[in-house]
Amino acid sequence: MHVYIEDLAKHVGETVTLKGWLYNSRGSKKMQFLEVRDGTGIVQAIVKKADDEAMFETAKTLGQESSMIVDGEVKAHPKREGVFEIAATSLTVVGHAADYPITPKDHGVEFLMDHRHLWLRSKRQNAILRIRAEIVSAIRDYFDDRGFTLVDAPIFTPNACEGTSTLFETEYHGDTAYLTQSGQLYMEAAAAAFGKAYCFGPTFRAEKSKTRRHLAEFWMVEPEVAFMDLAGDLDLAEDFICHIVQRVLANRRQELATLERDISKLESIQKPFPRIRYEEAVQVLRDSGKDFTFGDDFGGEDETIIANHFDKPVMITHYPMSLKAFYFKRDPEDPSRALCVDVIAPEGYGEVIGGGEREYDLDVLEAAIKEHELPMDAFSWYRDVRKYGAFPHAGFGLGVERTVAWMCGIKHVRETIPFPRMLNRLSP
What is the DSSP-derived secondary structure letter of residue 259? Predict the structure, then answer.
């Protein structure tokens, strides 16, 4: 009976079949200890020369990552609770592997990235991507369970909504198209149709950045809610983040342990989050000795300084309108400010959410499009959302990879996605 390693606890005393790959091995003159992995876990299979000399000799020939089928009895480890072993009774080699390039010795990052297709097989990368899968599942469950409708936004877009400097341009049947930076504009149209909508998919940024927080291709979830204001947006973002953290803590403790993540940092993520205005964040920087000019945007170092003053995500609101895109609604009490929010994760992981209220007055929106020197014709469909039943609405975008980095406690986003695309990397 074929079983997966993660289910071995249910089969103690039974003879089972494992199908997997050799993760590592060691041996003596009388026994071979094969660490077998199958994607769900790793277990030690013990091959004794006295039981089957031919099988013992076969086990000695196996190279790292050779694929195999092992039959044997499941036994509880005599000293380690929750750990199991396989007393092998047969061994079939499916595919021999020799000279596997990723060995137990240390390798440089570029070498590992060049072999990313193989690096995924390691314990650490397996743990990271399982946590990513849990986060993706938590995201979908959160919105699906709260009456949101998933509305897929296109990858090809006809217009550069915030200028072309950070967009990938491509030829599209004789026209110019761009790889999407965001599905937000489409979700605004979807909110008029469904009330509560979200999209979830890959987005692209062509900015020439080599920081530990940036990828050229990353995943983002973007909810948009009709008749919601900034206060409601803050509440939604706060509750959403807590939901994700709680899911990871509930279901991925083993993976967090593999990564040696300090889970006390995650356990402290509870509502309410601190909420400060842009000018308060500026004051935090100045009090910390940073010579910061009011009206400038926060860089990565600035975000880290601000975040270090809190043990939870901090929500920064009311940035100067000059720092935000044309579609943000101005604060009626101070039109120089945007009704916006950036959520900065603790421990130096930077902005994980950006959002706010959208401008729904058609005249004001068209003036903003002109002010930003954007082509009015490209936004004809977007203007229709206001022309035919304008309504207040708000939403946000959460970047999956930065969220994964934060949950896992890893410093660079390149390990948070199976096959990262960065400034100088398009392969594998």
Answer: T
